[in-house]
TrEMBL record:
Annotated protein name in UniProt: NurA domain-containing protein
Species annotation: Streptomyces salyersiae
Domain of life of the source: Bacteria
Length: 456
């Protein structure tokens, strides 16, 4: 009550305003909008027959009540392939056979457990264990059961050029002694590993992700676990793109590649943004030489500040219109300085808001054409011509809307279903799995809590 009555607290609250609130003038939104019909068109809607969506799910559980800081992280990443022609046909019938829906898509997923705090391999520290386990995960995770290509191969492909994966990757900092690489002191690692010339620390390809920099030896590691999930999702998409480019390039123009979330890399992963930018640009240029449409790649956001803002202004955006988000507009609604260069270090695609013909908004991220960086601040990257795939992507998404949840499209919903780790009883099972398999932990039924609907 004293805090509620405090005038200083009340005065502080009254001084603030919400930057992402609905704008006072509609002109600031409508002048940034364009109907789909006015945008450049690359490719044909009827030729896009498939969508491939990658999604991930992660969770962290406490091992026992006696050791609440001992945690285990679980990660699941899934790729879902949807036959778009089948879904278009289902939209025309009155009664849908669930078997037809099930037969129209397939999925493949891989799972991994990563060590949290106070879990180590014999003779290793916690962070060394994290690095070694992550390396094994990348080496052993194939993007599809019918291929041998792993996430490690995707990481090398990302650091190479079209059709020529890198044989080694340069690290910026030694994870052992912390020395930074220079012209005279290099840190390189191959698929088999490497070694620091200063401290002899064994180096892994997984060190390029830099997730070990956020490893916490005494508490939650949910943040680096989330980084691993993001990296695995993006690398899985790279696997699909390179597999088709190597074996069946024509498939690229028939397929929409969807990522759950924005096309961006944050935190220690951010330096990989430039690799994705160059890799996708290289692939687009390679396709152009073969008279193929650049790969249709889009990130779709289900939540977050931009999704909330899109919901607030959706009635200002006309149906079937796309709104481009300039740096000036983004800085204003996010409370950043006017001259801030938003997204320049993280995004390899640019955000747009598309109001579908059914009326709901989608926040999407689309890569620019080859040779451009989406947030370099130039007038060219803020214009429509820099995104030749934008119109076709929006037209495809229009046909894939679903009311399963807000801002949902069918491929994302199916991929999320395949990737989702269970809550309630399922989370308790993951906790018990850790107790039964980690030496030194006793089975603790009290740590396995039943869901609330069993308690009522």
């Amino acid at each position: 009550m004293d805090t509620v009555r405090n005038e200083a607290v009340r005065a502080a609250l009254q001084r603030w305003s919400i930057t992402s609130a609905r704008p006072d003038s509609e002109k600031g939104v409508t002048e940034l909008c364009s109907p789909l019909e006015d945008l450049p068109l690359s490719g044909k809607l009827e030729e896009v027959d498939f969508s491939i969506t990658v999604d991930g799910s992660d969770t962290e559980v406490e091992a026992t009540r006696n050791h609440p800081t001992v945690k285990v992280g679980y990660l699941r990443v899934a790729g879902s392939v949807v036959r778009l022609d089948a879904f278009r046909n289902l939209a025309r019938v009155k009664h849908i056979d669930p078997r037809e829906v099930r037969n129209s898509h397939s999925e493949y997923a891989f799972d991994v457990a990563l060590p949290g705090s106070q879990l180590t391999r014999p003779g290793m520290t916690g962070v060394e264990t994290w690095r070694a386990e992550l390396e094994d995960f990348l080496h052993n995770s194939r993007f599809d059961s019918n291929t041998e290509m792993t996430l490690t191969d995707a990481l090398l492909a990302l650091h190479g050029t079209r059709g020529k994966p890198a044989s080694e990757i340069s690290l910026r900092v030694c994870p052992g002694c912390g020395l930074k690489a220079t012209k005279s002191f290099t840190l390189t690692v191959t698929k088999e590993g490497g070694s620091c010339h200063s401290c002899n620390t064994h180096l892994y390809l997984a060190d390029a992700l830099r997730t070990h920099e956020e490893y916490n030896s005494e508490g939650s590691n949910f943040t680096p676990l989330g980084r691993v999930m993001t990296a695995a999702e993006r690398l899985m998409s790279v696997c699909y793109l390179n597999f088709f480019a190597d074996t069946a390039p024509e498939v690229l123009r028939h397929t929409l590649f969807i990522t759950d979330g924005p096309l961006a890399m944050f935190g220690p992963l951010a330096p990989l943004k430039r690799r994705f930018e160059e890799h996708l640009g290289d692939l687009a240029a390679w396709c152009a030489k073969r008279n193929l449409v650049a790969p249709l790649i889009v990130g779709i956001e289900k939540s977050g500040a931009f999704v909330e803002h899109a919901e607030l202004i959706k009635d200002i955006i006309p149906l079937g219109h796309v709104m481009r988000l300039t740096n000036t507009y983004i800085n204003r609604i996010s409370g950043r300085p006017e001259g801030n260069h938003y997204g320049v270090d993280e995004f390899y695609g640019r955000r747009f808001i598309y109001r579908t013909r059914t009326g709901d908004p989608l926040v999407i991220t689309v890569p620019p054409k080859a040779g451009l960086s989406p947030y370099d601040g130039s007038p060219e990257v803020e214009g429509w011509d820099a995104y030749p795939t934008l119109r076709l992507i929006c037209e495809i998404l229009d046909s894939l809307r679903t009311r399963m949840y807000q801002h949902a499209v069918v491929p994302i919903a199916l991929a999320h279903s395949a990737a989702a780790l269970p809550l309630g009883v399922g989370r308790s099972v993951l906790t018990m799995m850790a107790q039964q398999n980690i030496p030194g932990l006793k089975l603790d039924l009290q740590a396995v809590q039943p869901p609330t609907y069993f308690k009522n």
